[in-house]
Amino acid sequence: MRSKMRRCARVLVLVAVAGWVTADGSTSRAAQLLIDAPGACADPASLADEVGNLVGRPLAEVADVDFRLRVTEGASGHWRLRLEMLDQKGAGGAPSVRGSRKLEGTSCAELVEAAAVAIAVSVRSLQAEPPAEAPHPAAPPPTAEAARAPVVSALAATPPPPAPPPWRLAVALAAVLDIGTLPSVSPGAELDADLQRGALRLTVLGAWFESQDAVGSNDAGGRFQLAMGGALACFAPPLGRWTPLACGGVELGRLAGTGLLVARPETGVAFWRAARAEAGVKVSIGGDASALVRAGVAVPLTRPDFVLDGSSPVFQPDRLAARLTVGLELGF
Q1: From CA 311, how far away is CA 314, in angstroms rounded?
Q2: Per mean pLDDT, which of 16-20, 44-48, 98-102, 313-317 is the most reliable?
Q3: Do residues 239 and 286 both lie within one domain?
Q4: pLDDT tens-digit profile of 109-154?
Q5: How far apart are CA 250 and CA 233, in angstroms?
Q6: CA of 96: how far to CAs of 108, 192, 248, in Å?
Q7: What is the pLDDT of residues 291-321, one digit of tens each?
């Protein structure tokens, strides 16, 4: 009889332990990523994989917490992210906010990368916390120094600052117009190479202009042509699809004139030097292609005077030359 009662008691204990384990396990589940972002700028699967690589184990093995991200784009092209760590075992069974952090950046991808680092730091902090066991004796009251020490939650740990945006390369092919350097309005072609980082844009260009004729009072004159290169530094803050341009720089080139309607035509060459200031805009038209428009002036540092027979003046550039550039830019 006693042996039968002992066996029944053991069965009841085992059933009670199994029920306790089942009930305890039912309250824990894998961490979830809740993302609210415009378009497809943040992919939950890719973010979870990146966090797993940083932590050293899949995010699905982390229990008791969830992570919620909300990404918004500001009017000035800046992006904002709010990251919250949610406790699955909040009061009343509803998730509660355990910690939060706000980040800002120039792109959604940059913020998502910083969020991955912040989530990994939080998960590692959770791993370092001791498991909940039997209550420990009450700790003594904190000293004055301990009371002044800052309390930082796991999610509030500061991630490393995001890396600065990389230099972006682009090339542009444009039609140009010159007014003032040559005897009459002269069209031409221009090839640009651009590097941009943030709001700084550096441009190296080369241009060739169609030759123009100037004829004096004695029906003799010259044919003039300009080929030059230049460098511009621009303030170009990206504002969504639009990027305004404010540029300054220099241009150097070859200004040549050949005698026209004379018995013995000769060619004279002058070194062209000018300071240059321009304003314009770049507009994205899809993919990596953009339309480019710039307009400005070139101020000659020297104004060569072309003459015939050493005395008869034929042509001299104006004190101020206008430039207009319209082209297509491709980014890489």
Answers
A1: 9
A2: 313-317
A3: yes
A4: 888 888 888 888 888 777 665 555 555 556 666 565 555 555 444 4
A5: 10
A6: 26, 55, 55
A7: 999 999 999 999 998 887 767 788 999 999 9
SS (H, E, C) 211-241: CEEEECCCCCEEEEEEEEEEEEEEECCCECC
Say how far apart CA 32 and CA 58 lie, in whole Å.
12
Assess whether 223 and 158 both reside in one domain: no
- Residue 276 has a CB neighbour count (10 Å cut-off) of 19
Q: Looking at the structure, tell me whether residues 157 and 211 fall in a common domain.
A: no
Q: Quick one: 158 and 276 in the same domain? A: no
CA angle 242, 248, 251 (to 5 degrees): 120
My answer on whether 174 and 253 are in the same domain is: yes
Q: Do the Cβ atoms of 252 and 230 come closer than 8 Å?
A: yes
Residues 123-152 as b/e (b if ≥16 CB within 10 A, e otherwise) read: bebbeeeeeeeeeeeeeeeeeeeeeeeeee
**Is residue 135 domain-resident?**
no
Read off φ and ψ for residue 118, nearest 5 degrees: -65, -40
What's the structural domain count of the chain? 3
Q: What is the pTM of this model?
A: 0.52
pLDDT exceeds cutoff 50 at 86: yes
Question: What is the CATH number for 236?
Answer: 2.40.160.20
